[in-house]
Design goal:
The complex is a heterotrimer of chains A (363), B (329) and C (646). With 363 residues, chain A is of the alpha/beta class. In chain A, helix 3 packs parallel to helix 6. The N terminus and C terminus of chain A are likely disordered. Chain B has 13 helices and no strands. Chain B is globular and about 80 Å long. Chain C starts with 11 loop residues before the first helix and ends in a 21-residue tail after the last strand. Chain C contains 22 helices and 12 strands. By secondary structure, chain C is an alpha/beta fold. In chain C, a hairpin with a 2-residue loop joins strand 1 and strand 2. Among the domains of chain C are: 198 residues, Orthogonal Bundle (MetI-like fold); 69 residues, no CATH class. In chain C, helix 3 packs antiparallel against helix 4, helix 4 packs antiparallel against helix 7 and helix 6 packs across helix 10. The chains are: A alpha/beta (363), B mainly alpha (329), C alpha/beta (646). Chains in contact: A-B, A-C, B-C.
Chain lengths: 363, 329, 646
């Protein structure tokens, strides 16, 4: 099982690129994909007790060309729902998604749908269930090529399949393609997931926790695959993860989600070094870090999941927040610009200060 | 609450579907019941009297089908099941059923419950001693026995225990009809003797299924962490086997029990037929042979109600045994 | 080790599994025999018209009439031969049509969901509950005797619902599989997803269902004909049975007339049942027959550690594991998941065992706790707990120690707590297993430990599913503290939780440990998690300890290339962005471990001799490392520089 090591990309053992992407020079570029007030609610219970789960609430975000954006949050924060909204698995309850300036709601017909799907494919979390066990691993790639690049002949499809498999660092490609999923390791399967997405010649890959079920030693290889895809194939990536530390190594920008809201967004280093939202601070203090001394935050002791079933107005983090003020119970905070391209949805957070203080309560 | 309403709706729907089938079948089949009946009674009963009998189960050829249907539904639900028009011409259907019901309940009911309890227990033991003698021998044996035709097992038992042994065990009727029925030791003994072979037939053919499913459930549950946790806590084997493993493994079998009642009924019909045992199955066979519509209809409804009652009992048992089901209800 | 078991791939694997099953082989042989008989009856009998009354009645078996003749003067054997065709046709055709209907209804209900699913599953359940056999009898009577088409129709109409129910359940469980969502996101049409992605993964269930439906059809058809509701002139086993019963065959001395066709029905039914069962076992490998190992694991006398004799002395360790080996008996021979592990835990010490999936860390843990179950067993070594060897103890002796002296906390409380008993009842079970306590004592202690972990005691009356993930985990830890044992063994107790909850639980475990003084043996795949909590660290790779020593030292100066690789794989959120390296390749197959050092194929500093010599644990300052570079004769040569980790 040494297939991951060789190949043109030779990625697995190499070093993660550091500092190749600059901070927030992104604002000037046109948006590749944009959401405006994107909302998705689910009905839970039923019959008489009709309640609504606010999985994604009023999310506006932008992803530019050739950009890696990390979407970070705990389970239940709505990050996977957001990915499925962008992948058009779910229809939005409200708001809209614009791709290259055009609202997805205006896409008519199967051809337009397919064109979007080929531009914005998705990579799934679980390498043990994302490939159909009944088929060889080439199945998904070849089907995708047949659907999205109908001009290719049979032999060309095969050649293209080998190319994308090599592009994600698997070799020998021809042999790998003829294996069954259970004959590959978790890391190899997850690379196949990226190869499938790559076969469509995508503009943006939605990667839903692509490394969280892999062993630590294998994760780095996959993270490197992502940065290389951006450099060599020119794609953008939305990297969805609960692991804020890994986001640091691939992403240009970070979005932090909590209870269906984006609570903080900004250039990765800016958010990590000067988190503005109390939740981001809590999250950062809880990340196990072998190289850093232990910080035990008193607030970390409380870990109730956010209440997003029929939530009352106000900040969804207020119950756990050490800094909550009256305004937090009445008004839902909106993202406010607090630094260069750095915003947080918090009434208490202050601009250009390293940490929020309880004194100020604007809004 | 919603769950309970759904279940209630399901019961009503099933009953309605069964009653409607019952109503439609005779009306869509060729031939008129009046002429059939007239032929069979060889003109001894007047046509008007025959029609009067037939109307009791809602057969009114001159009325429109909608009002016939409504009348029929009303009659079935309120217990106005009419008169038999077969061999037992003129007998109220309720009387016939009343006579047969206790025998079927006693024989088939006991055999089924016994098979369930015994099969579940053996299955628990087989699954618990995974790889033991019980677990190695039982599955292939009971895969085969559960595929045996009821009537063939019955015939085999009759041959071995009755014919070859010169009538060691009786194979006909439900008691020795030279004895006057009553609570005498002779009568009770005779009833029990007559129940041995048909009961054994039902037991042999239905126990295999319970053993196999319970064994499989046990094996699945024994791999669960909470069973290993029970061991880690130092609990006695008995406690782990019953309170941790079997208690969880039996839950899927409860819904299986209700569903399998359909098979039990088919077994009851065939077994009662072979042994001339005067229960509901035998009654149905005779009703069918003699085109006794009112009796057939009532029996079919009764069978459906019996299955539904079993489903209800199993639902309640599941609610009692599984707190997660309670939360849903 | 929360890896999902992969869905079994049909095709080659299925075929191989089938051939290996004795049940499937037996069933297939019977079926084949009947098929030949049905296709070429002339091969088996010279009689041309089996229903003609050509012979003397009630002849016994003879060479001319293998099974004798009927009361009407027909040859029983040739009637059997000719009857095969109809029974087989009914079974196959009705079985096939019913299966098609089951798949159609079951899969569309599950896949299309919503209102349609509600309606279809209601329909399935109604048909399932309406008693089929009385309905068949009534329908057969009304439809007139004899028509094969009517019988087939009736069998299909009543026989599909059971399978549809199962298909729906299976398709529902597949619905959440990512590969179906992947197909949808790829832009496939619904019809394609159902036909080309869902159905191929359900092959074994579909075949099993076909066998079940065929069995049902054979038995029902025979029953109907036996009751006289079939065509009395047709050539079939059921019709033979009807005439035999009609003529009192049993009582009049020709039992074969009745028994032989019945046996044929039974055999055909059994063949379907056997194949069906074999497919069940393929779908769920746990159900397959297992053979007991010759020697019970505990009976094998492992080499007694020399330390055992002076074990009771004052400064002896709480737990001393020596040379422990655990093997799984697999189909391809034993797989050694734990290959000679030594470890020592002192009183009050926090010892962490880290390693990636499949390295044997959980197996090691369960071996120490005496909780292995077949096919895993300890093959060598000893586990001395306060001087007594747990490996050689009987279950009864172990039960005296369990929970009172050492307890276990598992990865997921959702699975480790009995779902049908309240938290309080499970605490009570544990206490009552180790002594006589009054209800009041049990309650008082239960309240005490729950308060210790910060849970409201009202939850003693809650069931596990009523608690949140973090609370369940804490309730399980509280249960482990009921007797304040000397040692608490923890298997990834925090890995199912979110980062914040995970951190708060770790802090709580550490506080409890300091408060109550128990020792902890903590297994995790996340090395960074234990950095600030453990005193001693063991790094496992491919069944072996590759590095052991004080946690700080291992983190600061890892001596084994694997521990270094693991450490360098952890991204850090604070401080400068250090370079990250992964480890190439994947862990070895433990059925065939590599020759020499097990890490050699993935090692960045591998040398030629690493592939030949098996390294031992060599002392390197405070730690010990299983690396030839650390072997005493190599000390003079410096290690390649380690990346700065600050």
């Amino acid at each position: 099982m040494t297939a991951e090591t060789a190949g043109a990309a030779g990625t697995a053992g190499t070093t993660a690129a550091t500092g190749t992407h600059g901070p927030a020079d992104t604002a000037a570029r046109p948006a590749l994909l944009e959401t405006v007030g994107l909302t998705r609610h689910f009905r839970v219970g039923g019959g008489l007790s009709r309640r609504t789960l606010h999985a994604v609430d009023d999310v506006s975000l932008v992803i530019h060309d050739r950009e890696i954006v990390a979407l970070v949050g705990e389970s239940g924060s709505g990050k996977s729902t957001l990915a499925r909204l962008l992948a058009q698995v779910y229809r939005p309850t409200g708001g809209e998604i614009r791709y290259q300036g055009r609202s997805l709601a205006t896409l008519r017909g199967r051809r337009a749908q397919l064109a979007y799907r080929s531009d914005v494919p998705m990579v799934f979390q679980d390498p043990f269930s994302s490939l159909n066990p009944a088929y060889r691993v080439s199945h998904g790639i070849l089907r995708g090529l047949a659907l999205h690049r109908p001009g290719l002949g049979r032999a060309e499809r095969r050649a293209e399949a080998e190319r994308v498999v090599e592009a994600v660092g698997l070799a020998p490609a021809a042999e790998i393609l003829d294996r069954y999923p259970h004959e590959l390791s978790g890391g190899q399967r997850q690379r196949i997931g990226f190869a499938q997405a790559l076969a469509y010649r995508p503009r943006l890959i939605l990667a839903d926790e692509p490394v969280s079920m892999l062993d630590v030693s294998i994760r780095i290889g996959l993270l490197n695959v992502m940065t290389q895809l951006r450099e060599r194939e020119g794609v953008s990536i939305l990297y969805i993860t609960h692991d804020i530390a890994s986001a640091r190594y691939v992403a240009d920008r970070l979005l932090v989600m909590y209870g269906g809201h984006v609570v903080e967004s900004g250039p990765t280093e800016a958010v990590l070094t000067a988190p503005r939202h109390p939740y981001t601070q809590l999250l950062l203090s809880a990340v196990p870090d072998p190289r850093a001394p232990l910080e035990v935050d008193a607030a970390a002791a409380r870990s109730d999941p956010p209440a997003v079933i029929d939530p009352a107005p106000g900040c969804r983090f207020r119950a756990r927040c050490p800094l909550a003020v009256d305004a937090c119970h009445a008004l839902t905070p909106r993202l406010r610009e607090l630094g260069p391209a750095h915003a947080a949805a918090c009434h208490v957070a202050e601009a250009d200060a390293p940490s929020p203080r309880a004194s100020a309560a604007p809004a | 609450m919603r769950h309970l309403l759904r279940r209630l709706g399901f019961f009503l729907l099933t009953l309605w579907a069964a009653l409607t089938l019952n109503f439609l079948i005779p009306r869509f089949m060729p031939g008129s019941p009046v002429t059939a009946l007239h032929d069979r009674t060889r003109g001894k009963v007047s046509a008007a009297a025959l029609e009067q009998m037939l109307t009791s189960f809602g057969f009114r050829p001159h009325q429109n089908i909608g009002s016939q249907y409504l009348q029929y539904l009303g009659n079935m639900v309120t217990g106005h099941w009419g008169l038999s028009i077969g061999q037992t011409l003129g007998e109220p259907v309720t009387t016939l059923i009343g006579q047969a019901l206790p025998w079927t309940l006693g024989l088939v009911g006991t055999a089924t419950v016994l098979a369930f309890l015994l099969g579940t227990l053996i299955g628990v033991l087989a699954g618990w001693r995974r790889g033991g003698r019980l677990d190695t021998v039982l599955p292939p044996v009971f895969v085969v026995t559960s595929a045996l035709p009821y009537f063939w097992v019955a015939l085999l038992l009759i041959l071995v225990f009755s014919v070859w042994t010169g009538g060691l065990l009786p194979s006909d009727f439900n008691y020795d009809n030279t004895i006057v029925p009553g609570f005498s030791p002779g009568f009770v003994g005779s009833v029990l003797q007559h129940a041995v072979l048909p009961g054994a037939t039902l037991l042999i053919t239905s126990i295999g299924g319970w053993i196999l499913t319970m064994r499989n459930n046990m094996i699945t549950v024994l791999a669960e962490d909470y069973v290993r946790m029970g061991r880690a806590k130092g609990l006695s084997n008995r406690r782990i086997m019953y309170d941790y493993a079997a208690r969880n493994a039996i839950l899927p079998n409860l819904s299986g029990f209700a569903m399998s009642l359909g098979f039990v009924i088919s077994g009851a019909i065939l077994v009662e037929y072979v042994f001339n045992y005067p229960g509901l199955g035998y009654l149905l066979y005779n009703a069918v042979q003699n085109v006794d519509y009112p009796l057939m209809q009532a029996l079919f409804m009764l069978f459906t109600v019996a299955v539904l009652a079993a489903v209800l009992v199993c639902d309640l048992a599941t609610l009692w045994l599984d707190p997660r089901a309670r939360a849903k209800g | 080790m929360a890896m999902n078991t992969p869905v079994r791939r049909p095709g080659g694997g299925l075929w191989r599994a089938l051939r290996g099953s004795r049940k499937a082989t037996a069933g297939a042989v019977i079926l084949l025999l009947f098929a030949v008989m049905a296709a070429f009856p002339g091969l088996f009998t010279s009689v041309r018209d089996a229903n003609a009354l050509d012979f003397a009645p009630r002849l016994g078996p003879s060479t001319r009439h293998l099974l004798g003749t009927t009361a009407l003067g027909q040859d029983i054997w040739s009637q059997l031969v000719y009857g095969t065709r109809q029974s087989l046709v009914i079974a196959l055709v009705a079985g096939f049509l019913a299966t098609v209907l089951s798949v159609l209804v079951g899969v569309s209900a599950a896949y299309l969901g919503g209102l349609l699913d509600d309606l279809l599953s209601m329909l399935i359940n109604v048909v399932l509950v309406i008693p089929a056999f009385p309905l068949i009898i009534i329908l057969a009577k009304y439809a007139g005797r004899g028509s094969l088409t009517v019988m087939l129709t009736v069998l299909v109409v009543t026989g599909w619902s059971y399978g549809a129910n199962q298909m729906r359940a299976q398709a529902l469980s597949l619905r959440n599989r990512d590969f179906l969502e992947a197909a949808r996101v790829r832009g496939e049409r619904r019809s394609y997803v159902i036909v080309a992605e869902v159905l191929p993964t359900m092959t074994s269930l579909i075949v099993a269902n076909f066998m079940g439906a065929a069995l049902y059809s054979v038995l029902s058809a025979a029953g109907l004909q036996f009751l006289g509701l079939g065509d009395p002139n047709s050539a079939s086993w059921g019709t033979m049975l009807y005439w035999a019963q009609n003529q009192q065959a049993l009582q009049t001395g020709s039992p074969l007339w009745s028994l032989a066709p019945g046996l044929c029905v039974a055999l055909l039914g059994a063949s379907f049942a056997l194949i069906n069962h074999a497919f069940d076992e393929i779908g769920n490998p746990a159900l397959r027959p297992v053979r007991r190992r010759g020697a019970a694991p505990a009976a094998a006398a492992p080499p007694v550690d020399s330390a055992a004799s002076d074990a009771q002395s004052e400064d002896s360790p709480l737990l001393r594991v020596s040379g422990l080996r655990v093997a799984y008996q697999g189909a391809r021979g034993p797989v050694e998941a734990v290959a000679g592990v030594d470890l020592t835990v002192r009183r009050g010490q926090f010892t962490a065992v880290v390693g990636e999936s499949g390295c044997g860390k959980s197996t090691l843990l369960f071996a120490i706790a005496g909780l292995l179950s077949a096919p895993a067993a300890v093959t060598a070594g000893s586990v001395l707990f306060r001087g007594d060897n747990l490996v050689t103890m009987t279950e009864k002796q172990l039960n005296a120690l369990r929970w009172r002296d050492y307890s276990v906390v598992m990865q997921s409380a959702m699975n480790a707590l009995n779902p049908v008993r309240t938290i309080g009842a499970q605490y009570r079970d544990a206490m009552r297993a180790h002594g006589t306590f009054t209800a009041e004592q049990v309650r008082a202690r239960s309240v005490e430990v729950l308060e210790l972990v910060g849970i409201d005691p009202v939850h003693l009356r809650s069931y596990p599913h009523q608690l949140s993930g973090g609370m369940r985990q804490r309730a399980m830890i509280a249960m482990a503290l009921l007797f304040t044992p000397d040692l608490v063994i923890m298997d990834e107790p925090t890995s199912a939780l979110d980062v914040v909850a995970q951190r708060s639980l770790m802090v709580q475990i550490k506080e409890l440990q300091q408060l109550l003084g128990f020792a902890v043996l903590f297994v995790t795949h996340d090395m960074s998690l234990v950095r600030h909590f453990s005193d001693q660290l063991l790094v496992m790779y491919a069944g072996q300890v590759v590095e052991a020593g004080p946690t700080r030292t291992v983190f600061d100066t890892p001596a084994h290339p694997y521990s270094r690789g693991l450490l360098e794989a952890f991204p850090s959120v604070r401080g400068p962005r250090v370079e990250l390296r992964g480890i190439t390749g994947s862990p070895p197959d433990l059925a065939r471990p590599p020759h020499g050092c097990r890490f050699a194929p993935r090692c960045p500093v591998v040398e030629e001799r690493c592939r030949e010599w098996e390294p031992e644990l060599y002392p390197v300052g405070e730690v010990r490392a299983r690396c030839l570079l650390q072997a005493p004769d190599r000390r003079t040569r410096p290690l390649p520089p380690v990346e700065a980790t600050s």
